[in-house]
């Protein structure tokens, strides 16, 4: 395996890394396919191969939820591999070279989520509408990013929600968002109207929409962070998995990266399999999966609901002074990360 030099990191940096011993140990867990394989043998595995090498070896109709986060049409380094920006026509040809070949692995009731940015989203739509039933387009806010002098700052991404047929599972109640009530309306008798009054503040459970503004892209002080350049938040995958799968169903990710899909699937009681060409990212995925056996918390998801950003002080009755505003301001980033690093 190509061994990378460890970067020098600040003392408080929590980015996950691998020791030499961990690389050797987790490499032994990785799967390589040489022929057709049974779905049971794929269960809870990480495949370290090029996707094109294994597409013809996958069993038919074993996947309940397919999550696809392919390289966007950008020039970017992914460990030992890279992706080069091209024109829309060539990017469409690349997507078309693997997407239709994934469809046979899906059950007739399966759901598919496909990620893209503003450059690639239109191309993706033009392809998937020929093969799948498009149910919605989710736009989520990526609050990190540099400003631009001659353009609008790019801080959003799309996720296309598709299904194989009109017969599919979707659980809106599992992905409610808990938000603080700004305008606490009351009915004629003075009781809260569509919100709850608690000793820790006033909250409302809101119906999930296709605009997600409560996500935080992993960064150096978050214990889920890795050096993968386009890592998705665990909270994002939790929304997808809870909404579109049941416990014990099978989640598949053909561009696994550092393992977020598999990790969240394990934390939420689903079966999983992911494909990743880079061995280092595969080993990071295996390390994160081992950690998930000990700690199954997902930042931003607790008490069976998703919470808006910067709300840790409200969760689990975690108000220490009774003054929510004061508690929230006093809660440092270090304290917040400590709770999720246990």
What's the assembly state of these chains?
A: single chain
Shape: globular
As for the CATH topology of the domain at 20-169 and 209-296, it is Rossmann fold
User: What profile does the largest beta sheet have?
Assistant: 8 strands, mixed
- Pairing-aware structural class of the strands and helices? alpha/beta
Mean pLDDT: 87
Distance between the terminal alpha carbons, to the nearest Å? 31 Å
Order of helices and strands: HHEHEEEHEHEEEEEEHEHEHEEHH
- Provide the CATH superfamily of the domain at 20-169 and 209-296: Vaccinia Virus protein VP39
By DSSP (H or I, 4+ residues per run), the number of helices equals 10
* β-strand number: 15
CATH-derived architecture of the domain at 20-169 and 209-296? 3-Layer(aba) Sandwich
Q: Strand sequence of the main sheet, in spatial order?
A: 1-13-12-2-5-7-6-11
Q: Which runs of at least 5 residues are low in confidence (pLDDT < 50)?
A: 319-342
In percent, how much strand structure appears in the residues? 15-25%
CATH class descriptor name of the domain at 20-169 and 209-296? Alpha Beta
Give the fraction of residues assigned to helices. Answer: 25-40%
Taking all Cα atoms into account, the compactness measure Rg is 21 Å
């Amino acid at each position: 395996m190509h061994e990378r030099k460890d970067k020098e990191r600040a003392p408080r940096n929590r980015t996950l890394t691998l020791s030499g011993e961990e690389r050797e140990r987790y490499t032994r867990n990785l799967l390589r396919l040489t022929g057709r394989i049974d779905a049971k043998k794929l269960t809870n595995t990480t495949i370290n191969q090029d996707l094109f090498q294994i597409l013809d070896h996958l069993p038919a109709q074993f996947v309940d939820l397919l999550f696809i986060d392919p390289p966007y049409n950008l020039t970017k380094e992914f460990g030992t591999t890279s992706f080069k920006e091209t024109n829309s026509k060539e990017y469409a040809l690349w997507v078309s070279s693997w997407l239709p070949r994934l469809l046979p692995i899906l059950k007739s009731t399966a759901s598919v989520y496909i990620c893209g940015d503003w450059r690639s989203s239109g191309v993706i739509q033009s392809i998937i509408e020929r093969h799948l039933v498009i149910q919605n387009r989710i736009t989520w806010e990526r609050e990190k990013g540099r400003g631009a002098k001659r353009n609008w700052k790019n801080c959003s991404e799309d996720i296309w929600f598709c299904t194989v047929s009109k017969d599919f599972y979707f659980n809106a109640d599992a992905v409610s968002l808990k938000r603080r009530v700004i305008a606490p309306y009351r009915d004629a008798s003075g009781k809260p109207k569509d919100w709850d009054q608690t000793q820790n503040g006033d909250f409302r459970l809101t119906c999930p929409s296709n605009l997600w503004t409560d996500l935080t892209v992993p960064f150096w002080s978050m214990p889920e962070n890795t050096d993968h350049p386009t890592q998705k938040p665990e909270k994002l995958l939790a929304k997808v998995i809870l909404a579109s799968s049941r416990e014990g169903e099978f989640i598949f990710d053909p561009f696994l990266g550092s393992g977020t899909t598999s990790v969240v699937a394990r934390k939420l009681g689903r079966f999983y399999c992911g494909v990743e060409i880079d061995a280092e990212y595969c080993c990071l995925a295996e390390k994160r999966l081992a950690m998930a056996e000990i700690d199954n918390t997902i930042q931003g998801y607790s008490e069976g609901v998703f919470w808006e950003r910067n709300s840790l002080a409200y969760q689990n009755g975690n108000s220490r002074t009774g003054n929510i505003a004061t508690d929230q301001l006093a809660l440092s980033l270090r304290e917040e990360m400590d709770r999720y690093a246990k």
